[in-house]
Design brief:
Elements lengths: L10 H17 L5 H6 L5 H8 L8 H11 L5 H6 L28 H4 L2 H8 L8 H17 L9 H4 L5
Length: 166
């Protein structure tokens, strides 16, 4: 793993990289830093540090997934830090669309098909399997999405609706 080849880059280079990363993230439809992190980019905290110009010597473990999600060729991260421009591949991967509930698309087993959280985990790339920081970011994003959708009183379990039978 490389640490940007041991080169020191001035703060303005990191700020420029941050602006370009943010612009590209938005171009690709990632509405938030968390959405980029949740779909295979670096962790939310790393994406935030890079976009705000507070990034510092990252290893390929961070750089390569970021370049992949932004649709950049290998070496683009370093090229931007050195004053160049990122080189885009032909097509960048778009944010994943979540299949409709219960649609069965994606060959989900029945116990997974009806739950967006389980479908997301089912579809996660194997590269995420050992990365606790990414899973924490993913879980946080999914939990926030689930909390933002209000539940109808009729959907609440009987014990909650009756306040424990009181």
């Amino acid at each position: 793993m490389s640490d940007l080849d041991g080169r020191e880059h001035p703060p303005e280079a990191w700020r420029r990289l941050g602006r370009i990363v943010r612009q590209r993230r938005i171009e690709l439809g990632f509405s938030s830093q968390a959405s980029l992190a949740a779909e295979g980019g670096p962790s939310l905290s790393v994406v935030n540090k890079i976009e705000t110009g507070r990034g510092r010597d990252y290893t390929d473990r961070v750089i390569i997934p970021l370049e992949d999600r932004l649709g950049w060729r290998r070496g683009s991260f370093r090229a931007v830090l050195e004053g160049g421009e990122p080189e885009c591949v032909d097509t960048a991967p778009a944010p994943a669309a979540v299949p409709a509930t219960g649609s069965g698309e994606g060959n989900y087993p029945p116990e997974v098909a009806g739950d967006p959280f389980l479908r997301f985990i089912w579809d996660a790339p194997a590269a995420l399997a050992d990365d606790e920081e990414k899973w924490a970011a993913i879980t946080g994003v999914l939990l926030r999405r689930m909390r933002s959708a209000p539940r109808a009183l009729d959907d609440a379990p009987e014990t909650r609706r009756n306040a424990g039978g009181i």
